[in-house]
Design a protein that fits this description.
With 374 residues, the protein is of the alpha/beta class. The strands form 2 sheets. The chain has a 10-stranded mixed sheet with strand order 7-6-5-4-3-2-1-8-9-10. Strands 11-12 form a two-stranded antiparallel ribbon. Helix content is 43%, strand content 15%. The protein is globular.
Length: 374
C-alpha cells in the first residue's frame, strides 16, 4: 500500500460551537447514530497499528470534527505515544488538525509543536463575517477567541493556516475579509464554498452561496491577491496555488481539483470507515477499522462504485475549454442527472472566473518566481 492519509473524528460530530453552515452536523443528523462520542483507545490503537503496518513511506493522521479537541489532550498524547511505540523508523508520520481554536491554550500549542502538528484554524476573515455564522452554544460570536488561538499558535512556533468558509454574505464582503486576514498576518489561506443541507434544494439558506456570487467572489479575490503580488507581497491561497501548479504541468494536491475522488478513509469515533468526509453517512459505511482489513474496506468502496461514479465526465465538460483546470470540481457539488453525476453546481462560476483570470495567472507565475528568488 502506498502512503496512507487517514481522517479521524476523535470526538465524532460533537462540537462546542453552533456554526450555521456546518456540513458535518447536517450529515450526522441524517445517520442512525448522530454522535459516537469520544474515540476509545481500542479504536485509536487498532487504527494506528493497522496504518503503520500497511503504509509505505509515510502515513498522515488528520483530526477533524465536530471539534476534535473535545476528545481532550490526553487522547492526543496517548495517540502520539502509541504511534511512537508502533511505527517503524523507516515510516514518516505526519499530523494535522482542523480546529475552531476556542479550546486551545498554551499546553495544547506546546503539544502541537512537540509533535509537529500542522494546524488548520477555522476563521471566516473579518469579525463581522465570522461572528455572523460561527457562534458558540450561547449564541455569541467567537472571532476574538479564534484570533487569540492564532497568536498562541504563533508564539509556540506551530505551523498553521486559516480556513475560511465562503457564504453568500462573505462573498459580498471579500475585500474586507482578505484585508483583515492579511492585516493579521495570516499568510496561508484557504477558502472553501459552503454546502447547503443534504436533500435540500440549493440556495434556500441564509448563508447559501449562488454560482453568480461565487464567480464574483473568485474574481474579486483574484484581483486582490494579484495586486499584492504586483507589489511584491505573496499570500498563499490554496486554490490559486494549485492552479499555478497545474499550469506548470503538475497534478493538483487539492482533492476537489483532481477530477475524481481518491482512496480516502474517514474513521469515525466508533471505528466506522467511510470513503470521504462529505459522505459520512450510513449508506456509505465501508466497514469498521477494528474488524476489517484495508483490502476489505477498499473492496467495499469499489462495490459502492464511489470512485468510479466520480470519474464520469459529463458531455458538457468534455467539450469545455476550461475542463483541464476545472475538472468539474468536488463530487459533492455535482448535480445529479438521472443516475449519474452531472456538472458542478458552480460550473458557470468556474467558467467565468477562468475566462477572467487566465491571462494574469500566467503572469502571476513570473511574479511569484521573482518574489521567491534568492
Amino acid at each position: 500500500m502506498p502512503p496512507l492519509s487517514i481522517l479521524l473524528k476523535p470526538a465524532s460530530s460533537g462540537c462546542n460551537l453552533r456554526c450555521a453552515y456546518c456540513f458535518y452536523a447536517d450529515e450526522a443528523k441524517a445517520r442512525t447514530i448522530s454522535n459516537y462520542g469520544r474515540m476509545p483507545e481500542a479504536v485509536s490503537h487498532a487504527l494506528i497499528e493497522k496504518a503503520v503496518e500497511a503504509a509505505e513511506g509515510s502515513v498522515t493522521f488528520l483530526f477533524q470534527g465536530g471539534e476534535p479537541t473535545l476528545a481532550g489532550l490526553d487522547f492526543f498524547r496517548d495517540f502520539a505515544a502509541h504511534v511512537k511505540k508502533t511505527a517503524p523508523p523507516s515510516l514518516t508520520v505526519y499530523y494535522a488538525i482542523q480546529t475552531n481554536g476556542t479550546l486551545l491554550d498554551e499546553e495544547w500549542c506546546r503539544f502541537f509543536k512537540e509533535n509537529r502538528f500542522l494546524a488548520g484554524l477555522s476563521l471566516d476573515g473579518s469579525r463581522e463575517c465570522h461572528n455572523r455564522f460561527r457562534l458558540d452554544g450561547a449564541g455569541k460570536g467567537t472571532y476574538d477567541r479564534v484570533r487569540q488561538a492564532a497568536r498562541r499558535l504563533e508564539q509556540a512556533g506551530v505551523e498553521y493556516n486559516v480556513l475560511t468558509v465562503v457564504t453568500g454574505y462573505l462573498a459580498r464582503h471579500i475585500q474586507s475579509v482578505f484585508s483583515s486576514l492579511c492585516r493579521e498576518g495570516f499568510r496561508f489561506q484557504q477558502y472553501i464554498p459552503c454546502l447547503d443541507p443534504l436533500e435540500e434544494e440549493r440556495g434556500g439558506q441564509e448563508y447559501s452561496l449562488s454560482p453568480a456570487q461565487y464567480a464574483e467572489f473568485l474574481k474579486k479575490l483574484f484581483d486582490l491577491w494579484y495586486r499584492e503580488l504586483e507589489q511584491g507581497r505573496y499570500w498563499s491561497i490554496r486554490y490559486f496555488d494549485n492552479l499555478l501548479w497545474m499550469l506548470e504541468g503538475h497534478a493538483p494536491e487539492q482533492c476537489s481539483m483532481r477530477g475524481c475522488c481518491g482512496l480516502q478513509y474517514l474513521v469515525e469515533a466508533d471505528g466506522s470507515v467511510y470513503p470521504c468526509d462529505f459522505y459520512g453517512l450510513d449508506a456509505y459505511r465501508l466497514g469498521n477499522i477494528r474488524e476489517d482489513a484495508w483490502e476489505d474496506l477498499d473492496r467495499a468502496r469499489e462495490a459502492l462504485g464511489f470512485v468510479e461514479a466520480s470519474r464520469h465526465v459529463p458531455e458538457k465538460c468534455g467539450h469545455c475549454r476550461w475542463y483541464p483546470l476545472c475538472r468539474n470540481g468536488c463530487r459533492r457539488d455535482r448535480v445529479l442527472e438521472g443516475e449519474q453525476l452531472g456538472c458542478s453546481y458552480y460550473c458557470e462560476a468556474y467558467a467565468g472566473f477562468f475566462a477572467y483570470a487566465l491571462p494574469r495567472l500566467g503572469r502571476a507565475r513570473l511574479l511569484l518566481r521573482r518574489i521567491q528568488a534568492p
